[in-house]
Every structure is written in structure tokens, then in C-alpha cells.
């Protein structure tokens, strides 16, 4: 039995835990799941909100749930969460996002996924009035700056993110660790020219016909999965799609919860029946949508890691992607790149993949190789080492 003298009491801010919180939720969930498997020595306190408290079921007796029902980015996480941390007597705590309480009694590790709020924060990305918007951004900048200054260790999810942290906040490079996120396991048993995925004449009549009827899909389709924040660049994607789809033989399926930003897009392009707004979908439906798509398109202007294209590669989809930020670093030769600010370039690159079966197969093959570079288990192991170093 391990001596309690050598046992750390580690807190993890898991208020973002779960698929509803998109990439950040996936990161927190996979980190905890893999830490449960690799660390039987240290104790963990997992801080959750009411809405995801029941979603997490510890499988390791060293992991305990703690209710910390404090809204992200709100005053309660600045006023009450620090007291909860102090009360829990943790030796250190990991904040998987920049929203670290200004007062924190424990040493901490913070993960920076991106600096989109610093680099790409147009008014269109907010529902607030101009004064409140300015105050909100000022508050974010203060929180990030103090978090980076006070952190014992900083985890950046890519070299691109690390360089941004150094550029905008001049954080000490010696305390920044680049730890890539993971990628899904390959979902297909058949690969290469004989893979199950192919450009379909029509999905109708296949085993997933009820699914296609549910989402009003009747033609071969391009797929995008993610949110509709302005930096995701979906307006240009839809304009490009309408330009390349003059004959109406394709559809564009956008998967993401129909929040304000998606509804704004939906209203603008409501007369375009060829664009499907699928809303939030279950994991099983999402798998089927991946499996039957023609290709995956990711037009983002700014990312910190770029998990969705890797997920598409796991399903054997050719990926056509923006050449911005971290994406060439993460995806390498497994994607066809376009200038995300040019609709014409987007049209040209998507068309070049649609019309070239050999290129499709090469991208799929490269994708299977690329995702092997990233592992959630390896991410958890390196994160644990960061805790111990601190």
C-alpha cells in the first residue's frame, strides 16, 4: 500500500465535463478517464456542476466527485469556487481552461487551448451591448494574464498555441509544456481503396435511411461538425458550397447545437434547402453521419488544436481544411488545405477533392496514419508528469 506521505491530493476543475461542452468537454472527460486507468496512487477530487454531476461515474476509488455548481466566467466562480478549493485541501488543482479564479489557495496547472478571445473577438461573437462587451473582454484579458503569471505549469495543446502565449503574454517558456490532445481510434475495419466510405449516388435505401429521413438528407453530402461562432467561418463555407453546387446534386450537413449563432446562419440561408442544420445529435447518429458523408470540411479561421478533422479521419473521410493557425501543424499531409478567407479557393479545393478519387484515397490513407500520432492515454501520462513536476 502506498504511503500517504507520497500521495498527492489533486483537484480537477471538471465543470466543462461531457460532450455538450464540445472540444473542451471532450478534453476534460478523456483526461479524467485515462487518469483513472493510469494513476492508482494519488487522490483526485473532480469538481462538477449540477448539470454534469450525474454524467461522471468514477471507476477508480481514488477519484471522488465534488459539487461545485458555479457558472463559468461568472462572479460565483471568482467568489465561491476559491473557498470550495480551499475547503477541499488539494495539493494542486488543474484548470483545463483559462477561467482560473483570481484568488486560488492551491498551486495550479492551467491548460490553454487557444487565444481566440485575444486574436479573434469581433462584436458579432457576442450578444452583449458595446459597453458590457468591452468590460467582458477586459475581464477575460485580466483573468488570462493573471492565470498565466501565477500558474506553476502551463499546458499548451499545440506549438502554435505555445507561440501565441509567448507572443501575447510573455509567459516564462520554461513553465510551458506542449501536450497534444488525443485522437479517436480508427472506426473502420476496411481501409484504403476497399474502405466502406465512398461517394454515394444516394444514401436512400441504406440501413441508415431512417436517419437520413430524420435529418432531411436525400443526396450525397459534405459534413461539418462543431459550433457556429464567427471564427468558425461557416458563412464563407455556405457561400462556397452554394457556388460549387450549382446543379444541386449535393447537400451540406452542419452538426451543432442550434444556439444563437447557428440560428442566425439558419435565418440568413433559410431559403437554401440544400444546407441541413442538424442541431445537436447523439453519438450513434453522429457516427452514422460521419460514415456516410462524402468528405469533411473544416473552414475555421483560428484553432488551438483542431479535434474535429481528426475525428473525421478516424471514420475514413477525406478532409478539406483551412490552412490557418495550428491546423497544418496538427493535420500534416492528411488534409487538402485552402485559404479560409477566400471563397473561390475554398470552392476550388473542395472541387479538386470531389473530382479526384485517387486524391480522396490518399487523404484517407494519410489520415489513418496521422491520427496514430495522437493519443489520449499519452496526453494523460504527460499531464500526470506535469502534476508531479509541479
How would you portray this structure in words?
The chain is an alpha/beta fold. Helix 12 packs across helix 15. The protein is built from 16 helices and 13 strands. The protein folds into 2 domains: 4-182 and 375-389, Glycogen Phosphorylase B (Rossmann fold, 3-Layer(aba) Sandwich), CATH 3.40.50.2000; 192-371, 3-Layer(aba) Sandwich (Rossmann fold), CATH 3.40.50.2000. The longest helix has 21 residues, at 130-150. InterPro entries: Glyco_trans_1, Glyco_trans_4-like_N. It comes from Candidatus Portnoybacteria bacterium CG_4_9_14_3_um_filter_43_11. One of its GO terms (molecular function) is glycosyltransferase activity.
- Mean pLDDT across the residues is 88
Quickly count the helices: 16
Class inferred from helices and paired strands: alpha/beta
Provide the CATH topology of the largest domain: Rossmann fold
Strand content: 15-25%
Spatially, the strands of the biggest sheet line up as 3-2-1-4-5-6-7
Largest pleated sheet: 7 strands, parallel
Query: For this structure, what is the CATH class of the largest domain?
Result: Alpha Beta
CATH H level of the largest domain: which superfamily? Glycogen Phosphorylase B
The helicity comes to: 40-55%
Q: From the 3D coordinates, which CATH architecture of the largest domain would you assign?
A: 3-Layer(aba) Sandwich
Pick out the low-confidence regions. 189-206
Amino acid at each position: 500500500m502506498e504511503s500517504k506521505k507520497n500521495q498527492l491530493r489533486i483537484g480537477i476543475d471538471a465543470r466543462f465535463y461531457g460532450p455538450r461542452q464540445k472540444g473542451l468537454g471532450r478534453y476534460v472527460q478523456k483526461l479524467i478517464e485515462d487518469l483513472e486507468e493510469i494513476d492508482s496512487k494519488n487522490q483526485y477530487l473532480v469538481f462538477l456542476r449540477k448539470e454534469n454531476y450525474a454524467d461522471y461515474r468514477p471507476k477508480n476509488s481514488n477519484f471522488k466527485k465534488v459539487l461545485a455548481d458555479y457558472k463559468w466566467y461568472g462572479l460565483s466562480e471568482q467568489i465561491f469556487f476559491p473557498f470550495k478549493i480551499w475547503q477541499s485541501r488539494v495539493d494542486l488543482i488543474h484548470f483545463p481552461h483559462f477561467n482560473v479564479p483570481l484568488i486560488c489557495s492551491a498551486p495550479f496547472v492551467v491548460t490553454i487551448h487557444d487565444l481566440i478571445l485575444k486574436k479573434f473577438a469581433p462584436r458579432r461573437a457576442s450578444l452583449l451591448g458595446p459597453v458590457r462587451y468591452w468590460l467582458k473582454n477586459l475581464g477575460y484579458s485580466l483573468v488570462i494574464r493573471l492565470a498565466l503569471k501565477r500558474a506553476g505549469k502551463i499546458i499548451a495543446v499545440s506549438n502554435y498555441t505555445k507561440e501565441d502565449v509567448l507572443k501575447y503574454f510573455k509567459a516564462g517558456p520554461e513553465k510551458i509544456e506542449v501536450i497534444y490532445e488525443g485522437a479517436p481510434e480508427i472506426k473502420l475495419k476496411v481501409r484504403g481503396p476497399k474502405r466502406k466510405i465512398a461517394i454515394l449516388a444516394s444514401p436512400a435505401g441504406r440501413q441508415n435511411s431512417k436517419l437520413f429521413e430524420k435529418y432531411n438528407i436525400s443526396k450525397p453530402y459534405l459534413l461539418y461538425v462543431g459550433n457556429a461562432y464567427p471564427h468558425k467561418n461557416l458563412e464563407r463555407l455556405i457561400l462556397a458550397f452554394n457556388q460549387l453546387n450549382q446543379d444541386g446534386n449535393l447537400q451540406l450537413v452542419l452538426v451543432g447545437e442550434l444556439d444563437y449563432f447557428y440560428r442566425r446562419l439558419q435565418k440568413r440561408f433559410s431559403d437554401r434547402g440544400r444546407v441541413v442544420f442538424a442541431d445537436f445529435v447523439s453519438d450513434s447518429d453522429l457516427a452514422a453521419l460521419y460514415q456516410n458523408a462524402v468528405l469533411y470540411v473544416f473552414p475555421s479561421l483560428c484553432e488551438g488544436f483542431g479535434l474535429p478533422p481528426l475525428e473525421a479521419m478516424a471514420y475514413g473521410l477525406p478532409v478539406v481544411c483551412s490552412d490557418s493557425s495550428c491546423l497544418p501543424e496538427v493535420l500534416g499531409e492528411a488534409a487538402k488545405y485552402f485559404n479560409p478567407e477566400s471563397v473561390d479557393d475554398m470552392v476550388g479545393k473542395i472541387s479538386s477533392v470531389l473530382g479526384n478519387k485517387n486524391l480522396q484515397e490518399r487523404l484517407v490513407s494519410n489520415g489513418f496514419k496521422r491520427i496514430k500520432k495522437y493519443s489520449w492515454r499519452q496526453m494523460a501520462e504527460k499531464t500526470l508528469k506535469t502534476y508531479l513536476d509541479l
